[in-house]
Design a protein that fits this description.
With 262 residues, the protein is α/β, with parallel strands linked by helices. 43% of the residues lie in helices and 14% in strands. It contains 9 helices and 7 strands; from the N terminus they run H-E-H-E-H-E-H-E-H-E-H-E-H-H-H-E. Strands 3-2-1-4-5-6-7 form a 7-stranded parallel sheet, sandwiched between helices. Helix 2 packs across helix 9, helix 4 runs parallel beside helix 5 and helix 5 packs parallel to helix 6. The longest helix is centred in the middle third of the chain and has 29 residues. The radius of gyration is 18 Å and the shape is globular.
């Protein structure tokens, strides 16, 4: 007999009663994740550096569905502020989505030490600081879920992607090590590896004809199209939910089949 599909009510309450912190949540994958988690019943604290981008999620704040905290995730003290806000408002933290990050792509001979340090801070230090901030609370609550938004370039790099790929590869190792440590406390730690996703960053780089650029990128992907932020958000919500209760230490590629071959 085929398994019964979950009804709409079950889907809409997938994260009911859970509290999430989402970094870099004002645009792209972060914003899509925040919107979807709210739709699935979660209470959400969204962080971001750019107050102008924060206007994107102002309707969620105005509706009482989310709290926004301005944050540079590379600064240790800001995590104390974010945790204080989350705990005061909701009393607990069940989910952390480390989505904030940065990218620099340059030839090796043009890559400065400052560039490398920036990549380490944005993609590795911030992930570590976020996990460390929520860890004791998740231990006290009897568990939690951490999802680190990494990248395919942590596994399959390009010739001018040294700094970005190195830090994303290290982020994936960080995820696996934390998953092993967290297993005893029912803290699940996983990575998602987005492929080519039509996010705000790609749109900014697409030039004067973004629709044409998007169409031209499609044939390089087995599924013949680029992905959308919502498709990454769906995977993140699944990994954050109790439906993924036996999944930890995994790297979930969401790339239209790009990583399946050469």
């Amino acid at each position: 007999m085929a398994a019964k599909a979950p009804d709409e009510k079950t889907i809409m309450t997938l994260l009911h009663g859970k509290v999430a912190i989402i970094t870099g949540g004002t645009a792209g994958i972060g914003r899509a994740t925040a919107e979807l988690m709210i739709a699935r019943g979660a209470k959400v604290v969204i962080t971001g550096r750019d107050l102008e981008r924060a206007k994107n999620i102002q309707p969620l704040v105005d509706a009482g569905q989310a709290i926004f905290v301005q944050q540079d995730t590379t600064h240790e003290k800001t995590w104390e502020v974010v945790m204080a806000v989350a705990l005061k408002a909701f009393g607990r933290v069940d989910i952390l989505v480390n989505n904030a990050g940065s990218i620099i792509v340059k030839p090796l001979d043009q890559l400065s030490l400052d560039d490398m340090c920036l990549m380490v801070a944005a993609n590795l230090d911030s992930t570590f600081l976020g996990m460390r901030a929520v860890w004791p609370h998740m231990v006290a609550y009897g568990g939690g879920a951490i999802i680190n938004v990494s990248a395919l370039m942590g596994e399959k790099t390009v010739s001018i992607g040294l700094a970005y790929s190195a830090t994303k590869g290290a982020q994936q190792a960080l995820t696996k090590s934390a998953a092993l440590e967290g297993a005893a406390h029912n803290i699940r730690v996983n990575s998602v590896l987005p492929g080519l996703i039509w996010s705000d960053g790609w749109k900014r780089m697409a030039g004067p004809e973004p629709d044409k650029t998007k169409a031209n990128l499609g044939p390089s992907i087995p599924m013949q199209r680029v992905g959308e932020p919502r498709e990454i958000a769906e995977a993140i919500v699944f990994l954050a939910s109790d439906d993924a209760c036996f999944i930890t230490g995994s790297d979930m590629a969401i790339d239209g089949g790009k990583s399946a071959g050469f």
